[in-house]
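Final report, Chapter 2: Outcomes

The project's central promise was a pipeline that accepts a single protein chain and returns its three-dimensional structure in a standardized token representation, suitable for archiving and comparison. That pipeline is now operational. To close this chapter, we reproduce one record exactly as it appears in the project archive, with the input sequence first and the structure output second.
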Amino acid sequence: MVIVVSFSFFASFIHRIMEMYFFRHGDFQHYYNCSAKSDQEWSELGQHNVGIGITCIVIGLITLPLYIPCMTTMLRSELWQHSCYKLMFFNGVIDIIGIVNSCFITGYFAIQGTVFCHAPHFNYLYGCLIMGFWTVQCMTSVVLAFNRCVNFWNSSLLSSMFQGNRTYYWYLLPIVYFLYFCIFVPPCLYSSYVHMWVLDPFLGVDVDVDPALVRSVTKPVIQVV
């Protein structure tokens, strides 16, 4: 099996970074151009779904309070001395952020019928953060799984990697992972038109889009042959 890095990486890379918004705003306005429709037309395009919105919010109201006793319990000294609880607490913080987004923010967007062009600047920057938080949760789970395996292997050398305050250094791996995806990967954007978080801000919308944008968010950079 040979891993081939596609040359499209160099063409699409410049469209993938959040830096484009701050330092090359003209490129942002070109690739995420909302001028194809008026504000009124974008508003009419959005699909107001009160049922989905209320369901998301209710789920959030049920699940979020359950984290309070769990997180508080993890902070007890007899538990906090174990590395796994330090990692689970960190993962719990990310979970809470995920619940706020998946339940409350998504619910509000569903009720309002939000599409990208309702507030392109906010949606773009917020989408970058959401992409980062999603991946940091994945990486934190991987670190926690590795920590549990180390415990089962009962290796003094491996166990020393998580002893005492050394566990906090493992926070850096998910944080770096978060920064990479937040900055170098296209944002994840909510669209009530398809009722999901998507990479393509104009998915399903009948507008002319620069093909470079579509390629940059849909074509794999690394192809496995």
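Archive annotation: The two ends are 6 Å apart (CA to CA).
This record, like all others produced under the grant, will remain available to the consortium after the project formally closes.
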